[in-house]
Amino acid sequence: MDDLLTYGEALERFDPVLGLEVHVELNTASKMFCGCTNHFGSEPNTNTCPVCLGLPGSLPALNGKAVESAIRLGLALGCSIAPRCRFARKNYFYPDMTKDFQTSQYDEPIAFEGVVEVEVEGQTFRIEIERAHMEEDAGKLVHQGTSGRIHGADYSLVDYNRAGTPLVEIVTKPIRGTGTLAPQVAKAYVDYVRDTVLALGVSDAKMEQGSLRCDANVSLMPKGSDVLGTRTETKNVNSLRSIEAALTYEIRRQGAVLAEGGRVIQETRMWHEEGYTTAGRSKEQAEDYRYFPEPDLVPIVADAEWVERLRATLPEPPAERRRRLQADWGFTDLEFRDVVNGGALDAVADTVAAGCPPQAARKWWTAELARRANEAGVDLAALGVTPTQVARVQALIDEGTLTDSLARKVFDYLLAGESDPDAIVAAHSLAVVSDEGALSAAVDAAIAADPGTAQRVREGKVQAAGALIGAVMKSMRGQADASRVRELVMGRLQP
Amino acid sequence: MALTPQDVRRLGALARIELTDEELDRLAPQLDVILEAVASVTEVAADDIPPTSHALPLTNVFRDDEVRPSLPQEAVLAAAPATEDGRFRVPRILTEEG
Ligand SMILES: [Zn+2]
Question: Does residue B31 lie in a domain region?
Answer without folding.
Answer: yes
